[in-house]
Predict the 3D structure of the following.
Amino acid sequence: MKVTYYGHSCFGFQICGKHILTDPFISNNPLAKHIDVNQVPADYILLTHAHQDHVDDVELIAKRTNATIVSNFEIVNYYKAKGLEGSALNHGGTFEIPQFSAKYVRAVHTSSFADGTYGGNPGGFILSGQGISIYIAGDTALTMDMKLIPLQHKLLTAILPIGGTFTMDVDDAIFASDLIECDTIIGCHYDTFPPIEIDKDIAKNKFLAQDKELVLMEIGQTIEI
Ligand code: NI
Ligand code: MN
């Protein structure tokens, strides 16, 4: 499975020829100026919640690619009303096609669109494909619900927010990695804005001290997992 980082909480996954994009916030991300949003591929767009730093480029990308938006009922209906394709879930539900599945799990956060429209309950996804499962936490606090995940899924890696203020910080993400029984974590939701700036070396060393690895991808970088 190939994973590309587009900045903040936006990742692209290539699974069996399908392109899955999460939480696109590229054109207004000051750290992603070198990414051409018009070249970003998407067959499916997974959205964890409706905040602007997760949905800002949804319409732009979905109109160009005809991608199917996969998210909670309220977010999918919001975009369907704008003429876009979508497939609605709620917590516990799974979007499934032969190439991959995406289960919508709980996140402790809020969810509203920039225009004030209610954005349903926020979530995360368990993305499974090619025999691999990845937890995409979305914006969330540490929560005991994370303990349910390893009871059902052996995670290869997890994408956790580490920037603090609006989500878990580095210390809570280390705690979360224990709850989800996954020692290789890809960090997201840091450095984009002043309130979520972190010291990356300190963060990586805190993980190392617990015999864990924090992977901080360069924006635009693609890795094979
Ligand atoms: Ni948020
Ligand atoms: Mn956010």
Observations:
- Residues 170-179 form the longest helix (10 residues).
- Residues 51, 53-54, 139, 166, 189 surround manganese (II) ion (ligand 2) (CB under 6 Å).
